[in-house]
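$ ./design --mode recover --in tokens.txt
reading tokens...
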């Protein structure tokens, strides 16, 4: 083949041209000559290598030089190099196939062998361009983007399918640019089979080993450009395939390309190649390995998540190599290592997973430095942690957390006081982690808090005493600036409480984690303030925070089950959240209730005071029957959902019943009552039997022996009208319950109730008649007695509507009517057929005191609820009273009456909703808030719709002069009403612009009817000012 390369004189001109052009922009070798060489594949290259190898320095077969033999046989070394360059050059293209790549790798190996043969320098075999191209063969011959073989194969198959339909050209949906087509072609040609990849890998391995053999005897001291190129190529090869866990880059007996690459890097740092400036070469090696350590992608690629396992393995190997180099070079490597650590901090990708791995790498390498250098780097890291870049401050927290995983270092030399501070874990936690908990950026605050929580949960700080010492704090005066960086325990806890109500969700979650860890491990005394902070987060606006708070307060209780404060905090925090509108939060509450209240329940004979779970469950139930009794009503909904999941078995019920004769009886009966009320399919017989066994003898004696006299005494007590006003309703309800207990027949029960209450009703009617109809009745008026009569009348009218006649209607109205109208309103005969609507002034001019009129309206409302005709006659007058009455109690009671009537007679009251909405601008804050509550309830139950101007009336309350009302209406709109109607704001947004600017000329918007009073009351913009403002007329 050597003869084939040189057998024609015209080929010498091609060789000369290649050398004259310095191996750039050369013409390819004649295809016939190339074909003669490659007919047998790579066999020609292999045979030539075997022929030349004995002449290299390592070959022992002969001591004869190859160069005279070439001259004697009229063979040109330059011609050989030119032909080898042709094959190397052909593989520089990314489209090169497998054969081209194999030829290039073998050709490069032959060239390195020629350079290795003694005399190659004298014969000018070494050419910098050719040598560098052969080096590049190591990286260019290995196919790129091998992570996506399936994608390329899919495209190839798609292309084959397209070839079957040659009659129809492919549609191009993208702009026809050459770059796109070229990239597609590259990807199509990039597919290699497993066998082809294996062949390329074997050839690459042999070439790299030959190169390293050359470098073991051929110095690159005077060729720094070769050193730099080799370092870059070797670093790229380190990620080509994984190394063994115990590899040592000491010799060439490696089995993997990555191990050979690391051996090459070590070789380049040896005195043979860098005697004068070893630090410069080491710096280049460390700098190139930086990309491997922080797992940056090659070229222009973006970071990928999750991190590929190949990159993680390459990082581990790089760390082992760096560690071995540092241990070998020691003082020489320390300055370079410090620079590398700083570059890691700057170059790490701003992704959580990448930061974690980079921090672990940094902490591992940092411990290779001596204590002095370690302390100086921590000082630099502290400054780095206060950089303006958010990503720097976040990564500094990752580093601090990673360093805490290592044991604290003790100085092996004398250090200054400032340097000793930087070696302590206390500095990392107090200054670098806790100090960032008040960072101005939420991301950093959240990261600092979560890092602190990890310190506590992962037992980075060994024991409670160390944590307590840490929280007590100490004051560090940093060595470069007088900046106080320590924090006392009170300051830290205050910071955590502030962060728990931070505006950002992640910050609140992280603060909860820290607070939970501190309180759970009893690091600080448990206070009501700290528990309230955790408890309040159970009602946080963010779902994730609510769920975490539920988990946190449960963990706290389980850590200290006998702590009364924690028991109350759990009940106050968890139980009400069963009403949460989010299903996942409800499920979390049910999980907590089931775990703490239901699962520990066992029969009485299995109760043991040593069983903490049982004791805790009964303690919580006892609190629900005593100090936190108001919370027990929330259990009904929780038990209703749990009953649907078949949580209440007969054995569970029997176990609870067994406790009804112990000191836990009250809690047991409360639990049974909630279970029975929530489980309609439950067999109640055992519960009823247990209750009858306890109470039936007493009840039977009471009902059949005492109830007549008891009912008479109660009725006489009511007829005296001396009892407190708040006792009248329970007393009348007691009469109703007694009637229900005596008989189960509804008709008989109603007849008995009519007999009991009939006398009371007559007494009330007579007393009111005396006041209204007698000439001097008002002079004998006792205000409190009349109020009791009115209130009693209203309560009885709801239980015995058939006993109420029109005379009572007129008497009640007469208390509200003017003296001029008394005559015709008091005659039932003349007013049997009253018109559907009376004059709007029928209630004006009354001489009755304000409390009497206010209670009269309540009584009238109760009468209207039972008699629709009366409601039709009075509704317009009630609406008018809202407009003209100057008495606060009257306006308040009228609003309540009209909203109750809206539930009963929705269609009738609907037209008067705008009149009720006027009260949202009432001068009295109490009435504004009362109206807001009532209308919100009606809107939630859909008795009232967003019609007319109602939405704008609600929105205008946002600028109420009372901040509490403004905040409350925001809560009603956003958290209550918006969930019922998610498009509420978007539907009304445009019309809000027209309405609040008073523009009425649009054909569609702002066209709803409004009275003059309504328009004036709700007018928002001051027409006489140049700067309109959202202020109501009543707020001025």
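writing sequence...
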């Amino acid at each position: 083949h050597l003869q084939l390369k040189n057998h024609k004189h015209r080929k010498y001109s091609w060789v000369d041209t290649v050398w004259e052009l310095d191996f750039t922009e050369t013409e390819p070798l004649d295809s016939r000559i190339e074909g003669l060489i490659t007919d047998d594949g790579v066999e020609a290259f292999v045979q030539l290598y075997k022929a030349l190898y004995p002449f290299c320095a390592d070959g022992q077969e002969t001591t004869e030089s190859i160069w005279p033999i070439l001259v004697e046989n009229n063979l040109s070394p330059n011609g050989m190099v030119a032909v080898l360059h042709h094959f190397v050059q052909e593989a520089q293209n990314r489209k090169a196939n497998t054969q081209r790549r194999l030829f290039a790798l073998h050709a490069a190996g032959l060239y390195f062998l020629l350079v290795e043969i003694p005399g190659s320098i004298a014969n000018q075999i070494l050419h910098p361009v050719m040598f560098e191209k052969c080096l590049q063969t190591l990286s260019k011959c290995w196919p790129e983007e091998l992570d996506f073989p399936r994608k390329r194969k899919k495209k190839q198959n798609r292309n084959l399918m397209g070839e079957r339909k040659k009659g129809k050209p492919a549609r191009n949906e993208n702009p026809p640019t050459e770059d796109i087509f070229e990239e597609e072609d590259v990807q199509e040609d990039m597919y290699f089979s497993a066998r082809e990849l294996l062949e390329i890998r074997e050839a690459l391995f042999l070439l790299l080993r030959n190169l390293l053999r050359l470098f073991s005897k051929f110095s690159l001291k005077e060729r720094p450009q070769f050193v730099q190129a080799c370092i870059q190529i070797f670093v790229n090869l380190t990620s080509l395939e994984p190394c063994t866990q115990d590899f040592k880059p000491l010799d060439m007996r490696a089995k993997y390309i990555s191990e050979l690459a690391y051996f090459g890097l070590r070789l380049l740092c040896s005195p043979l190649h860098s005697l004068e400036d070893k630090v410069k070469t080491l710096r280049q090696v460390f700098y190139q390995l930086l990309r491997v350590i922080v797992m940056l992608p090659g070229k222009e690629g973006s970071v990928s998540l999750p991190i590929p396992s190949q990159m993680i393995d390459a990082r581990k190997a790089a760390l082992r190599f760096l560690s071995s180099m540092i241990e070998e070079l020691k003082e020489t490597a320390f300055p370079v290592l410090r620079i590398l650590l700083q570059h890691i901090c700057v170059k790490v990708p701003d992704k959580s997973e990448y930061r974690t791995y980079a921090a672990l790498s940094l902490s591992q390498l940092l411990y290779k430095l001596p204590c002095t250098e370690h302390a100086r780097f921590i000082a630099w890291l502290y400054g780095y942690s206060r950089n303006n870049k958010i990503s720097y401050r976040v990564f500094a927290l990752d580093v601090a957390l990673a360093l805490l995983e290592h044991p604290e270092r003790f100085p092996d030399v004398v250090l200054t006081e400032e340097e000793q501070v930087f070696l302590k874990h206390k500095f990392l936690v107090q200054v670098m982690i806790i100090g960032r908990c008040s960072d101005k950026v939420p991301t950093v605050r959240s990261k600092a808090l979560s890092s602190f929580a990890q310190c506590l949960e992962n037992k980075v700080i060994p024991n409670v005493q160390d944590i307590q010492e840490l929280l007590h704090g100490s004051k560090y005066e940093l060595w470069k600036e007088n900046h106080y960086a320590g924090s006392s325990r009170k300051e830290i806890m205050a910071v955590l409480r502030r962060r728990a109500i931070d505006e950002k969700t992640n910050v609140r979650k992280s603060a909860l984690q820290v607070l939970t860890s501190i309180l759970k491990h009893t690091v600080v005394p448990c206070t009501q303030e700290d528990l309230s902070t955790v408890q309040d987060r159970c009602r946080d606006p963010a779902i994730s925070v609510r769920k975490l708070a539920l988990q946190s307060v449960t963990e706290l209780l389980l850590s200290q089950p006998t702590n009364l404060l924690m028991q109350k905090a759990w009940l106050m925090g968890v139980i009400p959240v069963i009403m949460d509108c989010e299903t996942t939060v409800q499920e979390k509450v049910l999980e907590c209730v089931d775990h703490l209240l239901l699962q520990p329940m066992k029969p009485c004979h299995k109760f043991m005071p040593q069983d903490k779970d049982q004791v805790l469950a009964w303690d919580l139930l006892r609190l629900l029957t005593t100090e936190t009794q108001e919370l027990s009503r929330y259990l009904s909904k929780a038990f209703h959902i749990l009953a649907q999941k078949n949580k209440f078995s007969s054995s569970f019920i029997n176990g609870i019943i067994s406790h009804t004769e112990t000191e836990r009886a009250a809690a047991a009966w409360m639990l049974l009552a909630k279970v029975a009320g929530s489980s309609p399919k439950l067999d109640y017989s055992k519960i009823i039997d247990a209750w009858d066994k306890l109470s039936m003898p007493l009840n039977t004696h009471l009902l059949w022996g005492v109830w007549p006299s008891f009912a008479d005494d109660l009725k006489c007590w009511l007829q005296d009208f001396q009892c407190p006003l708040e006792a009248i309703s329970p007393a009348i309800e007691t009469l109703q319950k007694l009637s229900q207990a005596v008989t189960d027949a509804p008709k008989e029960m109603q007849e008995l109730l009519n007999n009991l209450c009939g006398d009371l009703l007559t007494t009330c009617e007579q007393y009111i008649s005396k006041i209204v109809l007698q000439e001097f009745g008002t002079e004998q008026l006792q205000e409190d007695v009349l109020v009791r009569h009115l209130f009693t009348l209203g309560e009885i009218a709801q239980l015995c509507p058939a006993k109420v006649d029109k005379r009572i209607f007129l008497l009640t109205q007469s208390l509200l009517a003017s003296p001029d109208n008394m005559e015709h309103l008091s005659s039932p005969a003349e007013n049997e057929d009253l018109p559907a609507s009376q004059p709007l002034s029928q209630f004006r001019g009354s001489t009755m005191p304000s409390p009497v009129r206010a209670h009269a309206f309540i009584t009238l409302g109760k009468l209207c609820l039972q008699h629709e005709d009366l409601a039709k006659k009075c509704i317009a007058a009630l609406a008018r009273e809202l407009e003209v009455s100057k008495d606060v109690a009257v306006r308040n009671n009228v609003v309540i009456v009209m909203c109750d009537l809206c539930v009963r007679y929705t269609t009738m009251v609907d037209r008067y909703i705008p009149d009720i909405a006027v009260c949202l601008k009432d001068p009295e804050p109490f009435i504004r808030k009362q109206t807001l509550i009532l209308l919100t309830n009606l809107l939630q139950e859909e008795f009232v719709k967003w019609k007319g101007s109602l939405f704008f009336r609600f929105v205008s309350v946002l600028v109420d002069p009372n901040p509490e009302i403004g905040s409350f209406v925001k809560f009603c709109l956003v958290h209550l009403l918006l969930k019922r109607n998610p498009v509420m704001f978007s539907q009304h947004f445009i019309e809000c612009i027209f309405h609040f600017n008073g523009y009425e000329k649009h054909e569609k918007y702002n066209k709803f009817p409004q009275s003059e009073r309504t328009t004036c009351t709700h007018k928002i913009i001051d027409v006489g000012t140049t700067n309109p403002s959202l202020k109501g007329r009543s707020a001025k």
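exit 0
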